[in-house]
Amino acid sequence: MTDTLSIAIPLFHQLTALDGVGPYEVLQRLPGATVTFVGEATGEVRTDNGFLGLTVDATLDELPNPDVIVVPGGVGTRQLGADHAITEWVRNAHPTTRFTTSVCTGSMVLAAAGLLDGLEATTHWSVMNELNALGAVATGKRVVEHLDQRIITAAGVSSGIDMALRLSELLVDDVAAKAMQLMVEYDPQPPFDCGSVDKADDEVMTRLITYAADKQ
């Protein structure tokens, strides 16, 4: 790894907080790493349901060529079409990044930027068809790598931490990645085994649909 490592996480209204903050907690601990939350304008953006605010510290123009990009997801990605400023920034920055990555529906931004045409990519399980429609080949895998293209996509929310650990290995080495894992004590032992669609029964799916509708 070089002496300094510039990592940019674009923020936008109605993003999912953990999509950005999860990778941040891992990557900001790497030696020489600086993580900057960027956006169209500095100041606060509100996450999915407006309960939590995150702060944009630099504009997109102030950080045009980061070493690493991590695009979070959330319902706000539906507004980030091919001509949106964040999508354009990703498109222009990618040729010089070491890695351009996404979490959850952040992959739809990469696809809208033209970076996933014909490539296998992952996203939240609920928007596989939308990702396909943008030219990617959607898959339910947790993390998908295209190292020749310097692109990594991660599935929904918590998978961003897995991806950040893999990035730590690619940027430094596996010992660094394991050290980051230990630093954040990432040792998942969930009380239920229902973290993917194929593990959920009809009762759980019905409850999920009800909860999701209530939040819209």
Count of the separate structural domains: 1
> Could you name the CATH topology?
Rossmann fold
Strand order of the largest sheet: 5-2-1-6-7-11-10
What structural class should be given to the helix and strand makeup?
A: alpha/beta
Q: How would you describe this protein?
A:
The protein has 216 residues and is an alpha/beta fold. It has a single domain, classed as Class I glutamine amidotransferase (GATase) domain (Rossmann fold, 3-Layer(aba) Sandwich). Helices cover 32% and strands 21% of the residues. The strands form three sheets. A seven-stranded mixed beta sheet has the order 5-2-1-6-7-11-10, sandwiched between helices. The chain has a two-stranded antiparallel ribbon with strand order 3-4. A two-stranded parallel sheet has the order 8-9. Strand 1, helix 1 (17-27) and strand 2 (33-39) form a beta-alpha-beta unit. Helix 5 (159-171) packs antiparallel against helix 6 (174-183). The termini are far apart. 40% of the residues are buried.
